[in-house]
Automatic annotation (TrEMBL):
InterPro entries: NA-bd_OB-fold, RMI2. The lineage of its organism: Eukaryota, Viridiplantae, Streptophyta, Embryophyta, Tracheophyta. Keywords: Signal. It holds the Pfam family RMI2. This is RecQ-mediated genome instability protein 2. Gene3D superfamilies: Nucleic acid-binding proteins.
Length: 139
């Protein structure tokens, strides 16, 4: 993981345009921007049961524009995460063909006690796009 690359503030719908680069470093490109980590916020929703019955660390995040799968490991599994929580997640984005996008979470924070965070998040993503990402898309 290259931590010198910023985690992009994104909406789930934007991840649909992300593509894996042919590099062995697992870089991903979105409109010419190279990244490995994504920063999203949304509501935890119940994950459907997997065929092997292993539900540990599997959650879905719905941000109103789409859904992606979250994979939690380590200390995050000892916390109590419940459907309906509004959370902020940062993690390694994994492009998967024919399946939900996957985020290997390395930071998750429950923002449920702060009801204004959801509306503020959309403004933050729009501002980041206009200031930082849009100029690169237009090149």
């Amino acid at each position: 993981m290259d931590y010198s690359l910023a985690a992009l503030k994104l909406l789930c719908v934007q991840l649909g345009s992300a593509r894996q680069t042919p590099s062995q470093n697992a870089f991903i490109t979105l409109g010419g921007i190279i990244f490995q980590r994504a920063w999203l916020q949304g509501i935890l929703v119940p994950a459907p049961s997997s065929s092997d019955g292993d539900e540990s660390g599997r959650f879905l995040l719905d941000d109103g524009t789409g859904v992606l799968e979250l994979f939690l490991s380590g200390d995050f599994l000892s916390r109590r995460w419940e459907a309906g929580m509004y959370v902020m997640v940062v993690g390694a984005y994994v492009v998967r063909a024919g399946d939900l996008p996957l985020l290997k979470v390395h930071k998750i924070v429950d923002l449920s006690p702060f009801p204004d965070r959801e509306s503020m998040w959309y403004l933050e993503v729009i501002e980041a796009f206009k200031l930082f990402y849009q100029p690169l898309f237009e090149e």
